[in-house]
Write a structure and sequence with these properties.
341 residues; TIM Barrel; 7-stranded parallel β-sheet; 3-stranded mixed β-sheet; 11 helices; 38% helix; globular; binds zinc ion
Amino acid sequence: MLETTIAGSLPKPEWLAEPEKLWAPWRLSGDALERGKQDAALIWLKLQEDCGIDVVSNGEQFRQHFVHGFLQHIDGIDWEKKTKMGIRDNRYVVDVPTVTGPVTRPKSVHGAEAAFTRAHTRHELKFTLPGPMTICDTIADAHYGRRADMAMAFAELLNAEARELEALGIDLFQFDEPAFNAFMDDVNDWGIEALHKAAEGLNCATAVHICYGYGIKENIDWKQTLGSEWRQYEAIFPALNESRIDQVSLECANSKVPLSLLGLLKDKVLMVGAIDVASLEVETPEKVASTIRDALQFVDAERVRPCTNCGMAPLPRDVAAGKLAALGKGAALMRDELKGK
Ligand code: ZN
């Protein structure tokens, strides 16, 4: 009960990449970089296990960015042809690469890292992949014409990748869809269908991570505009609950999402974010337990997996390690409390 896990990313050690940055430049190159990524993954596997994290991940130590880590290996994208695009419904304007032809996956993207990670932990192993809608919101389209069509094309590539990784021993795939709270109509029209395509034929568990983003300035400014209660999920949870995706990961720590909305996901396992990744303050175990306790008003304990709100990549390494320990201890406190009842 209350098996713990993390949303995905963890900070890179300072010898591997510049600390406390998204898109942090690597500090190694060539073979040294490949060995460095593996060493970093080993450190985080060990720390997760020591902290009592049940379902572990490699902390995304092998990729620079959660979307582009996958896209860099896909053909049909012109990385030189930059298009200015307001992403996440114009929350940030950035220069993004452009899809100029049919997208294809010439070879496995994450196979080597998945095999390496699998060889070094006996815990249940999660692997994160970007969701099709979020990919389409991070890249410009000069080929498909309809965003939904491009999403389906990427979903097919994700599916081929996931099937290959499942054969290597991955136990759970999580598709990261932070775009889900920016395009609620599209989620219902084609976003969930694209997820189904990405997860098609997998025998292992599947999850979707939705969130209001890291604690970076653009997100903090945007969150100011959302009012005191964030009810955007009300528009998508009914369809998500009907979906074939098994688990939903969402932020509950210091979140303005009313926890009563969890009641709309009554058939899903919920990864309850009990660690605030936008704060440098390390939660006490009691605080983590209290966030889980709040969620338990709306979800049976059998369906709760205590988790982080989002990835911890931009945090200082010590803070992230502290938060992992707090998560493990807080979940243990809550488990004891439930057993005592
Ligand atoms: Zn997130």
